[in-house]
Amino acid sequence: MRGVDRVFYITTPIYYVNSYPHLGHAYTTIIVDGLARYYRLKGYKVYFLTGTDEHGDKILKTAEERGKSAQEFVDEIAQAFRKTWDDLGITYDNFIRTTAENHKATVQYVLQTLYEKGEFYIDEYEGLYCYGCERFLTSKELDDKGLCKDHQKPPVKLREKNYFFNLEKYRSWLREFLLKEDPIYPRFYRDEVLNLLEEPLPPLCISRPKSRLPWGIELPFDSNYVTYVWFDALINYLSGIGFPHNPLWSSYWVNAHHVIAKDILKPHAIYWPIMLRALGLPPYRKLYVHGYWLVDSLKMSKSLGNVVDPLELSKQYGRDSLRYFLFREMAFGYDAEFSIDQFLRRYNSDLANDYGNLIYRTFNLIEKYFDGKVPPYSELKEEDYKYREVVEEAINKYLRLFEGLFFHQALEELWQAIRYSNVYIDHTAPWKEIKEGRADRAGTILRNLSSAIKAFALALRPILPESSEKILEFLSVGNVDYSVILNWDLPKEGASVSKGAPLFPRIEFREKVESKNSQGEEKSHMERELLSIEEFRKWDLRIGKIVFAEKIEGTDKLLRLEVLCPERRQIVSGIAQYYAPSELIGREVVIVANLKPAKIRGVLSEGMLLAVHDEKGLALIIPERETTPGAKIS
Ligand code: ME8
Questions:
Q1: 22 tagged catalytic
Q2: Which residues pair with 336 in a beta bridge?
Q3: Minimal-distance CA residue to ligand 1 atom 2
Q4: Cα–Cα nearest to 228, from 116, 76, 98, 63
Q5: Closest ligand 1 atom, residue 16 Cα
Q6: Which of 251, 324, 373, 536 shows the greatest Cβ crowding within 10 Å of its Cβ?
Q7: 579 occurs within a structural domain
Q8: Domain total for the chain?
Q9: What's the pTM?
């Protein structure tokens, strides 16, 4: 492999210090942390940069409002960001602040170099200036009332002499770079930028008169001006690795990756590559762009006052639970909705029910029947090989998908194998083997499971670092990397196993349930049709365990399910738009067991699954803990 491929440089945006960190900031930082951990596990030399953006008018104004000096104010909030990342266990290598001397020196070096190359010109310009955006706006950036679309405030007419950077000169190069190198992911964001590049690029005003805005980095060639906050901020990606004087910078820069949300696509996809090109430096390798976290369909942001505090969530439910939710719930590139109910639902179903249970059951059986030592393998049976195949396929898919930033799909694949593990343990029933005197058979099953659990824990180390570490410790596996992920001889025979405390105890919570009539008013008992207990008793409701699921060809709503109840029966269910077949295997659901069999699209259906349907979509009814297939519900 070439040298460049063994280093991995990754950055978050540097966040404005006009407010405290919220879940949106934490998302980007946690995703970058996950990627940094992943590449470290693959043996790369990783450099992870984050930090704070501390200049500009907005920050000066906020400091004044709080009765503080600008420096005092930025010190305080920068410290809050750093503390949040430390408390969340973020493994950054450097925290850059734009008010630090080394950053200022790099910005001035870049400004001077570009000035000497003749990239800037001075001009008198009259335009509409938005103090929120801290720049002149074009007519396209105003709404029909003449307000700034982002800030919903009228821009101010300003006439000023300033320095400008001719971006248009680089437009055709940028188009070619975006098309040839394909650096922006997901690709629809690249296409959005290509669309902007259809028209000439207006010059970028890179200065602000000091008389109007003193809080910035002085232009080295004209002390009457400071530089534009974005020009200053983007350069953090170079100053953070020691550009230009520390020779290390170039070894990292060759494999640079930036992660941002879509709000700051334009400066990263247009200004930044052009600045690098003008400097004579290669552009970044990849720009990864994610969507917004929304609350009740609105972007989570300080100005809307709908922010969620990531530290509170992690204190209450654990850092790993927060990380799991963020990786699992957002399809990278698209918006996702945050709600505490969904957070807890995800936690209970995936972490407490599927993963936590599997670990606890397996380790408990080893403690109980094998004296807490990994048992030896005896002869492996067909079902054991089949199980290994399912695990190997899921792990390979997971790693591929993770690397491509398809995090939610990666986790879905892995969970398919985790759920299947619970089916494997149920079917092979090692406790029964023990009781019937076949301890060697039980040992083989439990060793197979322990090795799969090691693979899951290792695979999940970038996402669930703390619990993975604990699980590997419980298995006496130690600090291993991805090279042993599918080694079925690890953990070693005879190694100690302890079950420890449950890693993800279930959290009881009450979901908000609405019961309203068509006028939106609460329904009274009288308005509802009432059933007698005899009528209710006619319903044969039972627990069914889904052991097979597939889409019915030629339909987009229907799935064919095979359910243990306790006998195996076939059910056709209209839930294909809400659940992938792989998500369902191993799940326990509630079924109506005494419905007359019927044919749906020619396929026999012997029962019905119960589910709720609300404004968020459809959710299956599942028992609160693992139960027995066929158990009656009353
Ligand atoms: O733009 N959903 O800083 P900023 C998801 N200083 N991510 C969100 C989010 C949300 N609701 N809200 C914020 C700046 N973010 C500049 C950047 S970089 C050279 C300069 C995250 O404090 C997301 O990463 O406004 C977004 O791009 C960033 O915070 C904006 O942070």
A1: yes
A2: 293
A3: 292
A4: 98
A5: 22
A6: 324
A7: yes
A8: 2
A9: 0.81
Contact call for residues 327 and 35 (beta carbons, < 8 A): no
DSSP annotation of 244 reads T
Classify residue 439: in a domain, yes or no.
yes
CATH number at residue 570: 2.40.50.140
Q: How many CA atoms lie within 13 A of 118 on its CB side?
A: 1
Q: Is there a catalytic annotation at residue 25?
A: yes
- CA 168, 173, 179, 182: dihedral to nearest 10 degrees? -100
* Protein residue closest via CA to atom 19 of ligand 1: 234
CATH of the domain at 444: 1.10.730.10
Q: Is the CB of 240 under 6 A from ligand 1?
A: no
Catalytic: 103? no
CA distances from 187 to 82, 184, 280, 285, 292 (A): 32, 6, 26, 14, 17
Q: Of 96-100, 497-501, 546-550, 570-574, which one has max mean pLDDT? A: 96-100
Residues 351 and 480 in one domain: yes
- 534 and 600 fall within a common domain: yes
Give residue 150's pLDDT band: very low, low, confident or very high (50, 70, 90). confident
Q: Which of 62, 264, 265 to mutate to test the pocket of ligand 1 (most atoms within 8 A of CB)?
A: 264
Among the listed residues 132, 206, 131, 136, the one whose alpha carbon sits nearest the alpha carbon of residue 166:
206
Q: 435 lies in which domain range?
A: 339-484
Q: What is the pLDDT of residues 256-301, one digit of tens each?
A: 999 999 999 999 999 999 999 999 999 999 999 999 999 988 999 8
Task: Identify residue 257 by its one-letter amino acid code.
Answer: H
* 525 included as an active-site residue: no
Q: For residue 335, report the distance from its CA to the centre of ligand 1, in Å.
A: 14
Residue 205 annotated to the active site: no
pLDDT digits (tens, 9 = 90+) for 299-347: 998 878 889 999 999 999 999 999 999 999 999 999 999 999 999 999 9
